[in-house]
Amino acid sequence: MAHDAQGRIPAQTFITQFVTGKIDNGNVTKLVQEPILRPVRLAKGKDDLYYTPDWHRASRVEAALIFMTGKISEKKCDRCAKNLRPFASCVVSDVAGRGACANCHSDSRGAHCSLRHEAAQAGGKSSMWRFIASFY
Predict the structure, then answer these.
(1) What's the CA gap between 7 and 32, in Å, rounded?
(2) How far is the C-alpha of 10 from the C-alpha of 111, rounded, in Å?
(3) C-alpha angle 64/70/71, rounded to 5°?
(4) Which residue from 20, 69, 70, 98 has the fewest beta carbons nearer than 10 Å?
């Protein structure tokens, strides 16, 4: 999928090409019902070219939806601070990602996102951790 000169992909174009009729999981279903706050905006890599993620991976599509519908974090996670990211901003969602930002979720590194760890330490444990804790 092509992006414009600023690395943007219109939200509706993205959803039409990569979500509708292609990916069917609970988080995607919830995320597409959320208000779209911004288009997908890709970050530039070290070579000054925009990242071109493999949009055929469900985690990448889900991460893009988190990016479009979530809140821009006041503080970047450790990986975003090092520019290890496909998206231009560090964005989190209350709907999906378990507190991890879209960039970490995109690379299947959500469990290692420093924002997710900070939320858990502050008592905002993810639903998965509450589920596990219910057995003890």
Answers:
(1) 21
(2) 28
(3) 130
(4) 20
**Please, which residues bridge with residue 87 across strands?**
42
pLDDT above 80 for 124 = no
Q: For residues 20 and 128, what is the distance between their CA atoms, to the nearest angstrom?
A: 27
Q: Domain coordinates of the chain in residue numbers?
A: 8-133
Instruction: Report the distance separating Cα 85 and Cα 25, nearest Å.
Output: 24
Structure confidence by residue, pLDDT tens digits, 36-54:
999 999 888 767 778 777 7
123 DSSP assignment? T
Q: How many Å apart are CA 121 and CA 64, to the nearest integer?
A: 26
Q: Are 22 and 57 in contact (CB under 8 A)?
A: no
Amino acid 17: pLDDT: 79
| Tens-place pLDDT, residues 48-97 | 778 777 788 888 889 999 999 999 999 999 999 988 888 999 999 888 88
Nearest to 40 by CA among 74, 73, 63, 22: 63
